[in-house]
């Protein structure tokens, strides 16, 4: 059985790890980059078929012969490029199977409109699971279907509003489980707009304007989004603060 061919756009922070994993699993992989440094990194890492192109030029995308690949994977570090490339490729070749990554709900929507067959949200998955989706699509889909069948388990972005009881509090002081939601990650507006997963021991002070990403039943998420607009927390959260003080 011939190896599946993948054309991967991007060899930055996300792309290099995904590329190496796919290569180890026997995929025939070609890397396309527009950044000279990332292109050289790909060559040094053994991807001799890598190409340096201007992705804004349709003729250079056409020259890659994208229809000869089983999947096209857009993993540029700049999500705007992922949208642009997806849109360009779809307009040129409507039947392509394009997988793209996103780090926000807004970008996910744009990628789907642009024609991506599958969009992988970075606040939901790690680079390792992106690799798994390509390697074991049936198993991964079963896992996804199982999660989604559990009473509408989903993710929601929430901006901490002015006057919220969360403003000025440490992460460890907030008992998210008392609201039946799980904090997955956040965007710290003081440090920049990049998303980061919240792991055990993560020290951070929440501020108004920060964006948090929570997981839970959709109705619980909606309720919690309303609650964080209050000046005072519910009793369950106060209890934790009293016990830890």
Automatic annotation (TrEMBL):
A Pfam family matched in the record: TrkA_N
Domain of life: Bacteria
InterPro entries attached to this UniProt entry: NAD(P)-bd_dom_sf, RCK_C, RCK_C_sf, RCK_N, Trk_Ktr_HKT_K-transport
Domain RCK C-terminal: 141-230
Biological process terms in GO annotation: potassium ion transport
One annotated GO molecular function: monoatomic cation transmembrane transporter activity
PANTHER family: POTASSIUM CHANNEL PROTEIN 2-RELATED-RELATED (PTHR43833), POTASSIUM CHANNEL PROTEIN YUGO-RELATED (PTHR43833:SF9)
Record protein name field: NAD-binding protein
Organism: Sulfurovum indicum
């Amino acid at each position: 059985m011939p190896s599946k061919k993948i054309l991967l756009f991007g060899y930055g922070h996300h792309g290099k790890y995904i590329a190496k994993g796919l290569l180890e699993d026997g995929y025939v992989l070609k890397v396309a980059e527009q950044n000279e440094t990332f292109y050289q990194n790909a060559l040094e890492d053994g991807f001799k078929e890598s190409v340096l192109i201007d992705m804004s030029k349709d003729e250079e995308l056409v020259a890659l012969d994208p229809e000869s690949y089983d999947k096209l994977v857009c993993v540029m570090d700049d999500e705007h490029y992922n949208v642009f490339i997806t849109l360009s490729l779809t307009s040129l070749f409507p039947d392509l199977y394009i997988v793209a990554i996103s780090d926000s709900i807004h970008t996910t929507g744009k990628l789907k409109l642009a024609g991506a067959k599958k969009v992988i949200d970075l606040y939901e998955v790690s680079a390792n699971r992106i690799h798994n989706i390509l390697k074991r699509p049936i198993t991964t889909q079963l896992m996804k279907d199982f999660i989604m069948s559990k009473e509408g388990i989903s993710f929601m972005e929430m901006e901490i509003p002015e006057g919220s009881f969360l403003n000025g509090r440490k992460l460890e002081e907030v008992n998210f489980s008392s609201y039946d939601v799980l904090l997955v990650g956040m965007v710290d507006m003081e440090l920049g707009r990049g998303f980061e997963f919240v792991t055990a021991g993560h020290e951070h002070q929440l501020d108004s304007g920060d964006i948090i990403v929570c997981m839970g039943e959709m109705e619980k998420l909606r309720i919690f989004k309303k609650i964080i607009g209050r000046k005072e927390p519910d009793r369950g959260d106060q209890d934790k603060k009293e016990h830890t003080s």
